[in-house]
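Quick note —
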Amino acid sequence: MTQDDLKSIFQIYCLKEFGSPEKKLFGMEYENFIMIPKMKDKVKIFEPLHVEGSSGVFRILENMADISKESDDPLEKVYEKEMLLALESPAGTKITIEPGGQFELSDAPRSSLFESNESLQNYLRLLKYAIEEFKGELLFQGVQPLHGLEKLPFFKKARYKIMFPHMLKTGSLGQWMMKASSGVQVSIDYASIEDMQRKFVFLNRLSPFLTALFANSPMLKGKPCGYLSYRSHIWNNTDYSRTGLQTEFLSDKFRIEDYISWALKASPYGLMRDNEIVDTTDWNFMQLLDGAHPDLTVTLEDWEEHLGMLFPDIRIKNILEIRVVDSLSPQYTLAVPALIGALLYNENAFSTVQSVLMDLPEEEFITYKLAVAKDALQAEVNRTNFTRIGVTLMETALNELGSDEEKWLLPYFDNYTKEGITPANETLAEYKDCGEDPEKWIEKVLYIPD
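Predicted structure written out below.
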């Protein structure tokens, strides 16, 4: 395959006419933990979800499929060989399981925040019904706040079984990323290669500020960990070959060929052959192209699969995927696409914010990432004040949102950003109010759907 062949994947994604409604959709992925109440010495404690058994992952998936079967969009079971792997609906909604038993809703593309919120609320109600029989509870934090790796389950999807041991070779916290992290991801359309390149640079420069605005992972093993977004700290120490924020992604000279060159240097975890995954972690994609594997000839389909195994802050596939936001309470989750959509799909807002972001020195962005993981909006690097820029981003977005849309963003701005704080700061205050008792605190923050 040539460079042009590799680039052709992205060109295929741009076939729809520029400016068509289909090119202004957004997608959402929501991850959450499920906690199981137990009595220990006459005290209620909360344990992580299991995989097997009457209060495990498989039971919940079965329950969700059964409950939804009479609905307008029933969930069908998806298997990997004999293993129940996920659920998928005719409309394109998917429910998948992360390595530590985190549930993830991958929503179908939506044209409005109202539609996205309706889908989220339906999912939360369905999930709550599915865990009602064993009194399970939903938890939205960026990192599992009570339990370490040894207590968290492991969902034995074939690819996860390759990834988990491999993480010990690539960074210090990759296994924490897999089993203990939870986020909100937003996908944005692009209409041409040029449009994608412009938005990609913008989003990479925006990414540390998104982490700062929505930080929500200050707890680890039942106590404050010294970071407001420990999830961001985890990603900073996961796998340097496929994660993070590359300097070339910040330049207005960025071209898709730069992303392709970077992607070629990373190894696929595994490629499918005859319904089996072949472990390819010993070779990067360029080496596989050059025939380094004795039994594999890679294809364009392998390349497309490989693009989904990369985890940069902003990922390019058939959409631009923003991956830097901690899981949030559902009452505020829609603030994330509201902000990003307003900035990306409105030229006035885009230009205003672009002028701010492009003035920031490229060489400082790695420091930004480290600073916001620790201090979120309280971070300040040289002359870059994160509260001030965060307020500017929010106010610019709010100016573009109509009266029907600003309700998704304004409460978050009023309660957090305007005060220079995040949900992480609120979490720490609640923990203190609970006498620094992690079990009392967790019961207070567990989510109850409407």
